[in-house]
Amino acid sequence: xxxxxxxxxxxxxxxxxxxxxxxxxxxxxxxxxxxxxxxxxxxxxxxxxxxxxxxxxxxxxxxxxxxxxxxxxxxxxxxxxxxxxxxxxxxxxxxxxxxxxxxxxxxxxxxxxxxxxxxxxxxx
Length: 124
Prior knowledge:
The protein is α/β, with parallel strands linked by helices. The protein has a single domain (about 5-124), classed as Response regulator (Rossmann fold), CATH 3.40.50. The protein has helices at about 10-25, 35-45, 60-70, 90-95, 110-124, and strands at about 5-10, 30, 50-55, 80-85, 100-105. It has a five-stranded parallel β-sheet with strand order 2-1-3-4-5, sandwiched between helices.
């Protein structure tokens, strides 16, 4: 069965680039551009993984993650945060909340794809 990934970032170029790369790897990809869309799309599609930017409109990534972990439908979905703001306190906060990973932008596409594959493999 094809694994589903939701990419959430207000930078459309990043979403487009990741989407193309992940589709080429055989994933089914969904896109959202703010925290509110993230939660709505996650509930609708129940992806196998969410790639979530920290700083976005409509609640941001951390606000969206808080909503995701409160919902029975989405609480078990692994989340990897990606951000240009590599402050240690943000990283520690999201990992303590239950995020599966934290990747600083800019990131190596190859390394990021390995993290995605490992996270999805762990989920089963």
